[in-house]
Design a protein that fits this description.
Elements: H1 2-10, E1 19-23, E2 33-35, E3 45-48, E4 61-64, E5 69-80, E6 87-95, E7 101-103, E8 106-109, E9 126-133, E10 137-146, E11 149-152, E12 165-172, E13 177-182, E14 185-191, H2 192-195, E15 203-205, E16 220-222, E17 237-239, H3 251-254, E18 261-263, E19 275-277, E20 289-291, E21 307-316, E22 321-329, H4 332-398
Antiparallel strand pairs: 1-22, 2-5, 3-4, 4-22, 5-21, 6-12, 6-22, 7-9, 8-9, 8-21, 9-10, 10-11, 12-13, 13-14, 15-20, 16-19, 17-18
């Protein structure tokens, strides 16, 4: 409905987007999502817009609520294959807790996922989203399962590490290309075959080729005409000519006197002939390549026969991440539009609210600091007064005033 309306409003004709799954998390979210029971102490997701947000209702998502826990939650949808179609997986992540270590990704499974037993080893088709652990790991995972193996993207795609909501989008196209967008802007793109190890290398070094024995790879050689000068060899150390036998030296007691050794200023080190261009130099030998007999082209790397579930299978040290606006569709335009309508509308007011809170916190801290200072000063005054009084008392003792007598 919304899509039709939007098309009409904008006068844009979307190529009839198919929405396979869409979740904006309202009060009834738990009816659609199943908690894994693989472990008894999995962390709980709770519905909340968080500490700051753009819209108190619309920005409600599910938040990890317990520190140092595994989380396992999934939802099913009607089974589909992306063969011959574009696939878009998109959602928002907000690490409002200022995450130190924890996953922020989704896994998209085939329809036979055993939801109540979902766990880290449950086979999936695609894993996508941010992962942060310390300063060393801040990346966007894009993992494809291909013939039973999980293949990691070879490029380093950096994720956002601030406390705000961010939109993550993965686009996989039937021409075997992909694109990762963050906040509706391209973060990475390329060929599936080039950026994952789906297939073995197309060519390999020819196992039958061998560098000829007489292949000369030396660019420079010793100059055959260069010879060592006659007077080259000098000892490295010589007795110090300035040293004198001490007057009180007793040859019988101290042994025969020998002057200390010093560096010989005439010593030239080891002689080496000059280097000249090697007339027989043939360049570096390049191992010839041949077609890899193991290589078999596959024009359907992008394609999965069966998608049917999406889930959060996470470990979080510091909980507080909010997931929202999950979308799986075949339309890049629709996903962008949905991103605009959700994250796009949220981001500025969310930032404003956070800035206002920070400002309040700052003021409160200043206020507290001021109070603390005032109290400190007051205490100091008291102490000084007490000290003065004590002094006075001492004076009093020494010289009692008249009217006290
Ligand atoms: C989403 O928003 C951006 C920025 O305002 C705009 O350029 C783009 O056209 C929008 N996309 C759609 C599909 O409406």
């Amino acid at each position: 409905m919304k899509v039709v309306l939007l098309c009409a409003l904008l006068g844009i004709a979307f190529a009839d987007p198919t929405v396979y799954f869409k979740e904006e998390f309202g009060d009834d979210w738990a009816e659609r999502w199943v908690e894994s029971k693989h472990k008894s102490d999995l962390g709980k997701f709770v519905l909340t817009a968080g500490k700051f947000y753009g819209d108190a209702e619309k920005d409600k998502g599910i938040q990890t609520s317990q520190d140092a826990r595994f989380y396992g939650l999934s939802a099913k949808f009607d089974k589909f294959s992306n063969e011959g179609k574009t696939l878009v997986i998109q959602f928002t992540v907000k690490h409002e807790q200022n995450i130190d270590c924890g996953g922020g990704y989704v896994k998209v499974f085939s329809s036979d996922l055993d939801q109540s037993d979902m766990h880290g080893e449950s086979p999936y088709n695609i894993m996508f989203g941010p992962d942060i652990c310390g300063p060393g790991t801040k990346k966007v995972h894009v993992i494809f399962n291909y013939k039973g193996k999980n293949l990691l993207v070879k490029k380093d795609i950096r994720c956002k590490d601030d406390v705000f909501s961010h939109l993550y989008t993965l686009i996989v196209r039937p021409d075997n290309t992909y694109e990762v967008k963050i906040d509706n802007e391209k973060a990475e793109s390329g060929d599936l075959e080039a950026d994952w190890d789906f297939l073995p290398a197309k060519t390999i070094p020819d196992p039958d080729a061998k560098k000829p024995d007489d292949w000369d790879e030396r660019e420079k050689i010793d100059d055959p005409d260069d010879t060592k000068p006659e007077d080259w060899d000098k000892p490295e150390h010589i007795p110090d000519p300035e040293a004198k036998k001490p007057d009180d030296w007793d040859d019988e007691m101290d042994g025969e006197w020998e002057p200390p050794m010093i560096d010989n200023p005439e010593y030239k080190g080891e002689w080496k002939p000059k280097q000249v261009d090697n007339p027989d130099y043939k360049g570096k030998w390049v191992h010839p390549e041949i077609d890899n007999p193991e290589y078999e082209a596959d024009d359907k790397l992008y394609s999965f026969a069966d998608f049917g579930a999406i889930g959060f299978d996470l470990w979080q040290v510091k909980a507080g991440t909010i997931f929202d606006n999950v979308l799986i569709t075949d339309s890049v335009e629709y996903a962008e539009e949905f991103g605009n309508e959700t994250w796009g509308k949220t981001k500025d007011p969310e930032k404003k609210m956070k800035d206002a809170q920070d400002e309040e916190d700052r003021k409160a801290r200043e206020e507290e600091e001021k109070k603390r200072k005032e109290e400190e000063d007051a205490n100091k005054d008291d102490e000084e007064e007490e000290a003065e009084e004590e002094e006075e008392e001492e004076d009093d003792d020494a010289a009692p005033e008249k009217d006290e007598l």
